[in-house]
Amino acid sequence: MSKPSVAVHKFSSCDGCQLSLINLGESLLVLSQLVEIKHFAEAGPLDEEAKVDIALVEGSVSTTEDETRLKKIRDNCTYLMTIGACATSGGLQALRNMANTDEWIADIYANPSVILSLDNTTPIKDHVKVDLELWGCPVNKKQILGAIRALLFGVLPEEENDKVCIECKRQQTVCVMVTKNEPCMGPVTRTGCGALCPSVGRDCYGCYGPAENVNTDALANRLLGFGLLKDEVARRFLFINSAAAAFHKQGMSMKEAD
Ligand code: SF4
Ligand code: SF4
Ligand code: SF4
pTM, whole model, 2 decimals? Predict the structure, then answer.
């Protein structure tokens, strides 16, 4: 019986989520015995047009060429899973959606006419059907392995959309907002990272994107109460996941009120 097949594709991104896969180390070797990795340019195998059971997609869509390539990837796979903030919400590069792209390009490139970027950079789900999204900048190893294992058994993994605060409570991590007045984004950010930042004494900056049913108004008011300016609060929301709806709405309302 042939092994299930996997491909890893990259769009606009820093490659950090693919590195998380490579950093699986021994677990990646075990995985490579259970599945056939047909395309993973960063790790070696090359067959971009291969038909596969699972396509992992990193990065956001920035050019018309990206759109065409992504549609082919969707046609060639059974399950499509986005890995990381770039692919799920547009990532850091979506910050340019709030600026004048033409002006930036003109400032940077000697010949702007050779740059064929779309006006906005957008997440994968804006272009094709996505079966599963893994958030985070980067995603963590345990999530990737758990998701692939579930898909290999033909089930969709359970979505993790609790807040980071819940994870702090589970781990009995001391709250940095209560004890150090740190402007923590944990009350509105989805977990999946194991409350990594609070566990080492620093505030969460929202890299896993919005959790379910978030009260962003309440958190924004609390951050103002710590003495942050409205623009500083806006920047907390308009950062790695600036294009995710709940963060975008709150960030823009603080920016406009500034
Ligand atoms: S989500 Fe973060 S780590 Fe992953 S590719 Fe994008 S910028 Fe890099
Ligand atoms: S440290 Fe942050 S994430 Fe953890 S409980 Fe406090 S506010 Fe929530
Ligand atoms: S605590 Fe927040 S910023 Fe840190 S890894 Fe988790 S989601 Fe990202």
Answer: 0.94
